[in-house]
Amino acid sequence: MHGSSIRLAGALVLVLSAVLPGVHLYADPVAVRHPQGSGHGFLAVKTLEGKRIAIGDMTQIVRGDRVISRLVLHFNDGSLDDDQTVFTQHGTFRLISDHHIQRGPSFPNPIDVSVDALTGQITSRTKDGKIRQDHLDLPADISNGLPPNLLMNLLPSTPETKLSFVAPTEKPRLIRLSIKPAGEVPFLIGGTRRKAIDYVVHVELGGLTGVIAPMVGKQPADYHIWILGGASPAFIREEGALYEGGPIWRVEQISPTFDR
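Request: output the structure for the sequence above.
Response:
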């Protein structure tokens, strides 16, 4: 499915938020090579030991010139991860808005954050239920909720892609992600061997912060997203922490099963 799938915005950005200063170096938006369309896929979240802890739906709807992409994950313990992204794809991908919610026992620090990429308005609900409004001058390459879509549109030969991201800290800030292809990884579909590109998403900690963070255990682990390339790219799997300090979980597409 050409969906935004698991939404790096719902995962990596929370891992970053405790450690990053603001960043003001921007890149160009990603060019549209494979326009995104309507679709519906199914996902499972598993531990690295293979225990399933959540299932979810990823849906995408095209309305006029806008694409509405939503990922909803329901955890076994009643927790919820819900992320809805709206974007356009006129030559390049441009974020319109992103609304991300995490709550329940699986998420020690619940969030409810909305990013309006057109106005730069960041709206968040604090722990005590109050509404906070912040403003950031957002660049054209702001990518909350978009990374899997963007990765399906990168040329595998591109050595590095950099993106801007709004980290939902107590005071929201802009940070940078570096995305690099790390080679091909074999996998099987119905006994048929295929290969996916392993993209590594790395948090850039520049200056003194970059020196100190690894020493104090603050350097976020890299995040991996596997994409099937070709004329019709597809999301295959991703692996990383869904919140700051959280365990490494794996998210994969799953197929329906029937009782008979």
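The two ends are 26 Å apart (CA to CA).
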